[in-house]
Amino acid sequence: MSEKMITPELFRPSLDFPAVSYDQLLRSAAERNPERHAIIYHNLRLTYREVVAMVNSIANGLHALGLQKGDRLCLLLTNRPEYIITFIAAASLGVVISPINPAYKEREITYQLENSEAQAILIQEELAPLFSRVLAQHTFPELKHILITGSSAPENLPGALPFATLLRQSSPRYQEHAVVGSEDLLALPYSSGTTGLPKGAMLTHGNLSINNLQFITVLGATANDKALLFLPFYHIYGVMLTGSFLACGGTQVMMERFDLQQSLELSEKHQITYYFAVPPIILALAHSSLNLEKLNSVKYIFSGAAPLPIEPARIVQSKIKGTVVQGYGMTETSPLTHSQPYDPELIRLGSVGFPIHNTLQKLVEIDDETREVAQGENGELLVKGPQVMTGYWRAPEETERVLKDGWFHTGDIGHLDEDGYLYIVDRKKEMIKYKGFGIAPAEIETTLLEHPAIVDAAVIGIPDPETGEQVKGFIVVRPGASVTREEIISFVNGRLAGYKHIHVLEIIDAIPKTTSGKILRRTLKEREQTS
């Protein structure tokens, strides 16, 4: 038993979080501290007053284009101010945002545009050649507006409207174009399921705005804090960070992508207090020869998206003045549901901590969800709270499978220790976790089967100390066909985003399956362990 005894109920009582439209969190923070820096990006510094004015201009511009409440707007760009400004501007109109991974290839972008039936998209100008290839191969009847960062339309997208033009031509004064409430749909981030292609998780204004408030309450973040944000904004983790540090009135120092040395330099330069990471970055910090004293202003290094590697975390902890912690959540829960105590003396590195405020949990038997397991026993984690999605976009059967009486079935396996700390130990789901990103085996298997030489295929995750898991494929080659592993890997990887790439490929005689045809991945994993 720990010296400082706490219980989840005492530690995180239920709180009255206001259920407001998402843009109101920014507007409230701007009223409190209009001249405080909200965003720092390279040499650009934007105050809260300036960010709100830009949000108003883009919202008015989008409305003038004809975008209305309920329409979908995709974002295809890396971390930059336009991302946040457009996200919040769309939110103020009731327009639904669907973030697209900028590392996606043509087929993946096509799928999300078609599935979301997006009416508009904002593209980073460097990605214009990629998107022009998408348009050359597919027609999108719903897509009416193409916006692009920068001040002019590129030659390969001549009809695109520059973001700068929309910003200049529109009024910076707030105008209410639609009544937007907490129950209205706000975002459609796509989450990899265990079957088929990714599905859009329907997150409302209330889901995200309350989760932002839950997050800053648990972290104790205030207007005096500065966060370094390099985690991708298209990922739900990044969405939470950008929204939360605007909600608390703090400052976010933005990086387009992670670079270890640059992250240390920026931390020292701006006196960063919160450094957000994923396990591969913890590994990089642990094994780096760079001077981690540049992180001396950091109070917390917060890791999420995948289980924290304990020994590297201890190494990092020994090198910095701040505290390494981890949290837990999922795309379907906006994302945060669990976090460590704020008090460093109460933190247990191997645990994801306790449910955050207004969040319930239970652990049930893996094969019988009606029965809860005893303390110390492993069971599937179910969560319930105001941050849980309303369902999957146009996938009622999958929604019914994971959402029952308000309880979301996470598919993750864990147990509680004697003090109520939660430990995640395994996944019931078959998703592969590569550098914190979920990969659906079925999507890669479908791509493998598009090759004419392959008659059957299966994909599993294999342990990797640096990335968490790597993707391994198993294929059965058509009789008489001649093909090399290198050829198949090149074929598949050329069609998928980098984080979904196959790293290892094995040719076998048959894919193990149940009598109903379901792939026995556990058999393949056991084969891998004994080989």
From TrEMBL:
Q: Name one GO molecular function term.
A: CoA-ligase activity
What Pfam families does its record include? Answer: AMP-binding, AMP-binding_C
PROSITE patterns (UniProt xref): AMP_BINDING
| Residues annotated as domain AMP-binding enzyme C-terminal | 443-518
Taxonomy, superkingdom: Bacteria
Q: Which residues form the AMP-dependent synthetase/ligase domain?
A: 27-393
Its keywords, alphabetically, are: Ligase
Into which family does the record put it? Belongs to the ATP-dependent AMP-binding enzyme family.
Task: Give the protein's recorded name.
Answer: Long-chain-fatty-acid--CoA ligase
> Where does this protein come from, organism-wise?
Tengunoibacter tsumagoiensis
